[in-house]
Amino acid sequence: MKVYLDNSATTPVDPEVFEAMRPYFMDVFGNPSSIHSHGREARSVVERNRKKVAELLGTSPAEIFFTSGGTESDNTAIVSSVRKGVRVAITSPIEHHAVLHTLEALERRGEIALKYVQLTQGGAVDMAHLEQLLSTHKGALVSLMHANNELGNLSDVNAISMLCKSHGATYHSDTVQTMGKYVHNLTASHINMAVGSAHKFHGPKGVGFLYINGETKIDPFVYGGAQERNMRGGTENLAGIVGLAKGLEIAYRDMEINRAHITGLKLQMIQELKEKVKGVDFNGLSGDMDRSLYSVLNVGVPESAENDMLLFNLDIKGISVSGGSACASGTNVGSHVLDAIGSDPNRGAIRFSFSKYTTPEEISYAVDSLAEIINCRD
Ligand code: PLP
Q1: In this structure, are 370 and 223 located in the same domain?
Q2: Transmembrane ranges (predicted)?
């Protein structure tokens, strides 16, 4: 049996998305910047899909910029804000590397001072400490993700955005893991910049978007042609943009039914793991259904010299998952997220992540396989 439980890393393209993209490779293929009819046709496709994305996210098309994905969108949000004069950035140690490595590089070059907000037990943002940092550093850039990709921890973007607004801070939220899983009303939320990546919601890889609220001024990041209203040079990924918009449309259309299905799978996995696998626990807030993404479960297993082989052993059984352990020695590269929340570095960690295509039988197979691996150890 082959079981894919790594949907936070990427998702398979929905056949409906694939069909929607198909005409935009050979039938409609013009360069959207060309002024002839082929180009104009392609331009109208880009703009129609920008409008669709904007409508789904409760914002205006002028605030949606297509990019090559989440990494580019995070880089753009951060680097461009710094070019516009931001001198202090506030983040957390459990952000995705697209955010952390960008901020750290800017700090190394002396362009910003970087401050880390404290996390409470389990890895939630300590709101009192955030307020303290915001009061001391007026006009800072705040970069705090909506859902953590390893743990599934959800942050309260509305509370953070209100706090940022009241302290004159610019709020960038890496929303890659929550796009298409929850309804985002970006205009109402006061988030300045948010991010989407199509391959996380059954769209194609290599295409994403950056939402920049109309009041937020940033500089172009990719210099070149006048595409994306002079913000991001480069010929648009026509078929990719169609696939992104279709993926998001389907995600919104089927959100309730998919959410109920995936939540059921997560509850099933929690229950079966507790019943069948010795010594399991759940990392961060991932076992808390109200405070974590419904599609992610990060499971801790007891200390063992064989933990290094966990993912390999699951792979042999046909199960694809992600892992990571807190890095204690500094000699091996562990998970910076588990490390930051103080996870026991001797325990093993496995991230299971589900999609609308995951079945209850696959969950049971994964649990039984893990039980076979763990329970027969000394
Ligand atoms: N941010 C988060 C939270 C992610 O999970 C990912 C993908 O793993 C990214 C950013 C990067 O997105 P992309 O793969 O589109 O560059």
Answers
A1: no
A2: none
